[in-house]
Specification:
With 294 residues, the protein is α/β, with parallel strands linked by helices. Helix content is 40%, strand content 16%. The longest helix has 15 residues, at 170-184. The two termini are 30 Å apart.
């Protein structure tokens, strides 16, 4: 896959669809490679008339790593924010939003439809708010406003997300990935363990880099709420959220839609915190429908 220099970093990306079609930038979530925008899903969007671009965020996949940069503990970050003395972190979500815009710059793209999932949704929200002239539309999937007081994730889901694998060998990492996918997945749209395991193996073989996730998580916590930022978004916006999301309960999606002027929300029954194959067409058509109307 090709690379570009974006925001001073080396970023791995790929694209599909007609190069002359309206561009659509896909931003993935915490610790996740761009592979979590699956090929068939990207192909669906391309077939609906878009130039689909996905990329590895900094500190994950084949993009540039921040080796040696420490990630402070979450509690220290929160205590510093409360005390008005922010704890230094390697980077913030604003920096990751600048990476996304840098990818567009490197590809010569002035404006794009911006789509983000989970942490990627947070980054996409920042792009839309701070670079309105670059944003044709915004789709925020299974994400959040970050507003304090929203319901926390289910304990078993949060534990699964933050628990370390039994080891760093391939088998342990694959087992852990399968376990996590099973816990946070969509109850009404199950994915076979065989498929989950095969995907985990592909992801591990492409790039296993555990050190980036704590730094990305620190960026989320230290970046705080977007409660005051979201009302400034002018782009046509769609919020997609599952009513069975165990990491970011559906109230997070509702709050995001409430804060963005004119935003529309689609709540999908039985969907958790993933993009199950059974919903590729539904979600792709919703994204495309917003983009066409914009």
């Amino acid at each position: 896959m090709p690379q570009v220099t974006a925001n001073g970093l080396t970023i791995e990306y790929d694209e599909r669809g007609d190069a002359a079609a309206p561009p659509m930038l896909l931003i993935m979530g915490l610790g996740a490679q761009m592979l979590l925008w699956p090929d068939p899903f990207c192909d669906l969007l391309a077939a609906k008339g878009f130039r689909v671009i996905r990329f590895d965020n900094r500190d994950v996949g084949l993009s540039q790593k921040f080796d040696g940069a420490p990630a402070p503990e979450t509690q220290a970050i929160v205590e510093g924010m409360i005390a008005g003395k922010p704890v230094p972190v390697p980077y913030l979500l604003d920096d990751m939003a600048a990476d996304a815009l840098g990818v567009l710059d490197a590809l010569g793209i002035d404006r794009a439809h911006v789509v983000g999932a989970s942490m990627g949704g947070m980054i996409a929200q920042i792009v839309a708010a701070k670079a309105p002239e670059r944003t044709r539309s915004l789709t925020s999937i299974m994400s959040t406003s970050g507003r304090f007081g929203l319901p926390p994730g289910k304990p078993e889901a949060m534990q699964a997300l933050l628990t370390r694998p039994a080891g760093i060998d391939r088998a342990s990492i694959v087992d852990h990935s399968v376990m996590l996918a099973g816990v946070i997945g969509s109850p009404a749209y199950p994915v076979s363990e065989t498929a989950l395991r095969r995907f985990a193996e592909i992801a591990y073989d492409r790039s296993f880099y555990a050190q980036g996730m704590p730094r990305q998580y620190a960026a989320i916590v230290a970046s705080g709420s977007r409660e005051k930022l979201l009302p400034t978004i002018a782009a046509p916006t769609l919020v997609i959220h599952g009513d069975c999301d165990p990491l970011l309960p559906v109230e997070h999606g509702r709050d995001t839609a409430r804060l963005i002027p004119g935003a529309r929300i689609e709540v999908i029954e039985g969907m958790g915190h993933n993009l199950p194959p059974q919903l590729y067409e539904t979600i792709a058509e919703s994204i495309a429908g917003l983009a066409r109307s914009a």
